[in-house]
Amino acid sequence: MRSPKPLDLKFRPSRLLYGYFVGVHGLAVMGLYLLVPPFVAVVLMVLLLFSAGFYIYRDVYFLHYHSLGHIAFADNRWRIFRGDVRYSSTLGAQQVDWLDAVVLPFAVVLRFRLLSGRVQSVLVLPDHLDAHQYRKLRQIANFARIP
After folding, report:
1. Which bin fits 76, alpha (ψ -120 to 50), beta or left (φ > 0)?
2. Residue pair 138/106 in contact by the 8 Å Cβ criterion
3. Smallest Cα–Cα separation from 68: which of 124, 119, 116, 27?
4. Per-residue pLDDT reduced to its tens digit, 72-109
5. DSSP states of 51-82 as a string?
6. 71: CB partners within 8 A, 6+ apart
C-alpha cells in the first residue's frame, strides 16, 4: 500500500466547535424552562453550564489530560496524542487503527479503534487546522483504502 506524505495535525481552538457547544447547551436550557418547573430548571441549568464549560475546556482549548489535540499519520500508521497542550512533555502518544472517515462539506469525521478495542470518533472542522493541512486531511480521508 502506498503511503501519502506524512501528515502532522496540531489542532487549534475552533470557533465553530465553541459555537456548537454554546448553541446546543443554550437550546437545552431553553427547553428546560418549557418542560419542567422553574426550580428544577434552574438546578439543571447549572449542571448544563458545568457541562458546557467542561467540553469547551477539553475539546476547544485542549487543556484537559484527555484532550485530543494532535493527530499524526506516517508510514501507514496513525497516532493520536492526548494531554494538556500547555505541557508538551505530558502528551501521550497512542497508536491507533484507522477504521474509516466521513467527509462532509463542513467537516471530516475520523473513526479510530484504540488499543483497548474502543472506537473513537474525531470531528475535524475547517478552523481546527490551517487551509493546507485541512485540504491534505480531506484528500487522505477521501482516497485512502482500508485493507
Report:
1. left
2. no
3. 124
4. 888 878 899 988 877 766 678 888 998 888 899 999 99
5. HHHHHIIIIIS--STT-EEEEEEETTEEEEEE
6. 7, 9, 11, 78, 79, 80, 81, 110, 122
C-alpha of 81 from chain center: 12
Look at residue 31 and give its three-state secondary structure.
helix
Can you tell me the distance from the alpha carbon of 80 to that of 71, in angstroms, rounded to the nearest whole number? Answer: 5
- Cβ atoms within 10 Å, residue 91: 17
Contact status, residue 48 vs residue 33, Cβ threshold 8 Å? no
> What pTM was estimated for this model as a whole?
0.83
β-partners of residue 48 are none
